[in-house]
Amino acid sequence: MSEQRLIIKGGTPLRGSIRVQGAKNSALPIIAAALLCEGKTELHNCPCISDTYSSCRILTCLGCRCSFKKNDNLLIIDPSGADKTYIPDELMQEMRSSIIYMGAMLGAFGECRLSFPGGCQLGPRPIDMHLAALKKMGVRINEQYGSIECRVPEKMQGARISLGYPSVGATENIILAAVKAGGETVITNAAREPEIVDMVSFLNKCGARIRGAGGSTIAIDGVERLEGCCYNIMPDRIAAATYVSAAVCSRGEIELQGIDISLCDSYMPVFEQMGCGIYPCERGIYVNAAKHLKAPAGIITLPHPGFPTDAQPPLMAAVCKAAGTTIFEETVFENRYRHVDALGKMGADIKVVGKAAVVRGVDTMYGARVSALDLRGGAALAAAAVGAEG
Ligand code: UD1
Fold this sequence. Notes:
The protein is an alpha+beta fold and 390 residues long. The chain has helices at 24-33, 50-61, 89-92, 100-109, 128-136, 168-178, 194-205, 237-249, 268-273, 312-319, 340-345, 375-386; strands at 15-19, 41-44, 65-69, 74-78, 111-115, 140-144, 147-151, 160-162, 184-188, 209-211, 218-221, 230-232, 253-257, 277-281, 284-288, 299-301, 325-330, 349-353, 356-360.
């Protein structure tokens, strides 16, 4: 891919309204879930991001037809021609979410062949829990030279699965594999993220029988068939966090449209602690970050409903100029401080020791030539740049 660059002239407070796009982490599993349906699925509010295009390439490679009307954020998927069960490595490498096609293909065809996924390098991202759960459901898995071949001897069978950690991707893969399996599947210590709730709402609208999404125990009664439907993807709470962060960095005042404040409960209180005014308004959320800002109490990233790891980089950009010291503890990913060096280059005072990062507020940040090494880290740099001089 050719180098892509953003040139940002900072120092002007952000003011205005913006509609929050559909959630990436909800759209991607829902796009994969459309493979399990008979008939077309129409996804509204689908974000126009490169991962949507990667998902379409995967589905097309499996024999589906995808049409993405990006100006309307409408994706139409017709899975009726799907007849392949193999995803080539180059498509698997395009994004981390490609692993979700393991559950989707097993649910749809009872077999699949793919490789380990690519995506942002945030430390080791194993898929051991995905594989162990699928084995419990009767899937035979043959791993060789990075290729994963999965086959179900007869029909996929429901099982009781207790996850050692509430992994988002593993929870989604199990649900996708279980939705048309024989009997009941019960997942304990399931991930509770709102995006899982959104995927389950989509599947239930298609005719699935899934209870408990949003809680730690999810029960899935296998059904014979699913029918494609029209569905509206939920708004992206992490994109919203990024906009709030950019408003904070530049001491601005913004309105986020199309998102309910309750969706942001896991992180908005931190911005309030910093002294920002955050209020629900008719069209969504109003954010006033024009005041003097102070460092919030310690931030520990955790699975939902804890502080989201995806909001850690943008929040870090926001606290760089807050008065006082902020201590972060990143518990979800091992290598999620890759934005720190670049923020330092822009004038921030940040020290990383193991899982902790200590940020001491500075008065001014400066524009610099920096590189985005992962998605959310890059968003954090853009937010910091908006509030930096030059
Ligand atoms: C999803 C999100 C990502 C978010 C993350 C945590 C999508 C498309 N991506 O990623 O934006 O940052 O949740 O909220 O929804 N783990 C294992 N073994 C496994 C699976 C996971 O050890 O089999 C570990 C991972 O290495 C990581 C932790 O569990 O340390 C969390 O991973 P997981 O919840 O699975 O994240 P993803 O689904 O990859």
